[in-house]
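Hi support team,

I submitted a single chain yesterday and got back a structure, but I'm not sure I'm reading the token output correctly. Could someone confirm the output below corresponds to the sequence I sent? I've pasted both exactly as they appear in my results page.

Thanks,
R.
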Amino acid sequence: MKDFLAGFGFMLEGLRLIRKPVLRRFVIIPLLINLLVFGGLIGVAWHYFEQLMDQLLGYLPDWLHWLQYVLWPLFAVSVGLVIFYTFSITANLIAAPFNGLLAEAVEKHLTGQPLPESGWKRILREIVPALLAEVKKILYYLLRAIPIGILFVIPGVNVAAPAVWTLFNGWMLSLEYLDYPMANHHLLFPEPRRRLKSRRMLGVGFGLGSLLLTLVPVINFVAMPASVAGATALWVRRFREATESTESTESGFQPRNPRNPRKGVMATEAHGKEVRGEG
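Hi R., thanks for writing in. Yes, this is the structure output for that exact sequence:
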């Protein structure tokens, strides 16, 4: 239960983080692009509907022209419904390319350390592994979503199916959003699953918090960037230090001690002497 609440807390921290001035642009820019796209589409739809109305009224007798006062409100309601149901979906699609940058900016904000830049050669080398990781993620989802979906049609068992489906989607959202900060460190799927496997309730708590945000009108517009920011905070506070410690141990280097800056260097030198048979 403690891990579950901690995971949910990281989601709330994500909401707080995206309000920081240094991070706000990663939320505002995709949102503005989305508004421009929808504004343009509404303008085009209005133009063609106006032409359609003029043609329709040309065919109708004068005594039926009152229908325009019914059709225009229907058009406005239809447009409103389309915006309500598709705005957040489109916003998420537009924001997706910004998520890696947002995760990088959040990590820099939390740690005060920029991520090492990757050269073009490394980026090109990682295109195929990244695509394979996405395929693995999709297969992982389908191999579990299909059996859970079957539960809905089994009498008796279908009572518990909605709860199982909700928990599963919470778990998948945690894997999806944790993938962004970990990908910045070249750790691709299924690595997020391995990290969360021992802290499953931490992931479920975070994922259900993210799922809850998507269900709240207006707030769902920022659900994705808030989830990316929260997942990055989760990565930094619960997994990043463990990763660096493991890498340091494997390389024979120990992190520098603020009180003794030479400590890390001395550990490395001692390791080198052992390899050479000195000392």
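A quick pointer for reading it: Confidence is low (pLDDT under 50) at residues 246-279. Let us know if anything else looks off.

Best,
Support desk
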